[in-house]
Amino acid sequence: xxxxxxxxxxxxxxxxxxxxxxxxxxxxxxxxxxxxxxxxxxxxxxxxxxxxxxxxxxxxxxxxxxxxxxxxxxxxxxxxxxxxxxxxxxxxxxxxxxxxxxxxxxxxxxxxxxxxxxxxxxxxxxxxxxxxxxxxxxxxxxxxxxxxxxxxxxxxxxxxxxxxxxxxxxxxxxxxxxxxxxxxxxxxxxxxxxxxxxxxxxxxxxxxxxxxxxxxxxxxxxxxxxxxxxxxxxxxxxxxxxxxxxxxxxxxxxxxxxxxxxx
Amino acid sequence: xxxxxxxxxxxxxxxxxxxxxxxxxxxxxxxxxxxxxxxxxxxxxxxxxxxxxxxxxxxxxxxxxxxxxxxxxxxxxxxxxxxxxxxxxxxxxxxxxxxxxxxxxxxxxxxxxxxxxxxxxxxxxxxxxxxxxxxxxxxxxxxxxxxxxxxxxxxxxxxxxxxxxxxxxxxxxxxxxxxxxxxxxxxxxxxxxxxxxxxxxxxxxxxx
Lengths: 263, 208
Hints:
The complex is a heterodimer. Chain A has helices at about 30-40, 100-115, 135, 150-155, 155-160, 190-200, 215-230, and strands at about 1-5, 20-25, 45-50, 60, 75, 80-85, 90-95, 120-130, 140-145, 170, 175-180, 205-210. By secondary structure, chain A is α/β, with parallel strands linked by helices. In chain A, the strands form 3 sheets. In chain A, strands 1-3-6-7-2-8-12-9 form an 8-stranded mixed β-sheet, sandwiched between helices. In chain A, strands 4-5 form a two-stranded antiparallel ribbon. Chain B is α+β, with helices and mostly antiparallel strands. Chain B has a single domain (about 5-25, about 40-185), classed as Rossmann fold (3-Layer(aba) Sandwich). In chain B, the strands form 2 sheets. In chain B, strands 1-2-3 form a 3-stranded antiparallel β-sheet, with no helix packed on it. In chain B, β2 (about 40-45) and β3 (about 55) form a beta hairpin. The interface of A and B includes residues 3, 7, 65, 76 and 255 of A. β4 of chain A pairs antiparallel with β6 (about 130-135) of chain B, so a sheet runs across the interface. Chain A: This is Proteasome assembly chaperone 2.
């Protein structure tokens, strides 16, 4: 459930017309890293917590700290940030899902989206690169998906951007190639959230990248630039990668310093 | 162990409750007929001041039970004027720092506090990118969301078994506002500490 930071009238859950941007906990954590870049660059303000029993608990100090003063705010595993000037609200998820909690989370999330009247949901996700077929190995590793409700609203914008839609795969490969289904291996709650949104008539877009586990920082940059082509969150210049601000919590992603005695 | 030696005392504290967990990590063999004192998660109340509660949780609470543990426990406590202090330990290998952990002088304390906690903390705050997990994280998250003043003291140690050095790392807390009035006589503490450690040692010895 959404719990605002400020109690009282000021911190209500009214995001009418806002776009909700959120990650799927997926391969390489690319969606979550991309969201970190968005929050950090746009200096978004924390407006509340998404308090749920579906995620593993964790706490830490402010991951977007820029000085000693703001480094002492406690952060939990799921928090909501907003930027009213761009009509953007962001949900960041920082820990994995607890077993059997995918569906309850999707239901809670979508009913929250409906109750606070968000205009649309944009899900940043990723999928295992090794599961691509021969055709997918060529060309761009970025894909999109739109629910029917959003397709009507955007009216061919994706075609203008020259984006590639996520291909469906055969339900029974080798046996029957006519029946096609959506398959997003490594995507976490992506498929479930997408199909639930389709059935509820919610405007949702999924932006995903094919990648593997490893150093996923370049993948995060690629995904956030892909998002920016559509939403124009920051001004696109030739070298957009340098305009995204890396948060202070990305330090030491690959462990501590080495003991000098090793050499 | 720190709490047992320095704070708890059968004269001043009484057992008021227990949390039973359906959990393979729990060492209780007979789960249908567990006595309150058999439980690995006990709640004590200070007899002279019933507003002070102490919880000793010596078993692992699995991630899918942490939320329920919180709801059950905090469901029984009045939130107004509530203040929570959490003590926990963690291997120093989990501590992320620019230098190698071999050069750090462990054990050492780090703290995390909720927005509402306005008192002085007894040690530096936990620096990014370090995080805290499990039950201590669950309790602190709950307190942050529901605006309860709370502080977590995490001790990073390089010893797996119970030892005096790690326990004594928590000593700065004895002078904190919350614990100052609850501290026992120093000589008693040393006795209990020794007893706790010798009981554990006999199990560690592989020689007869």
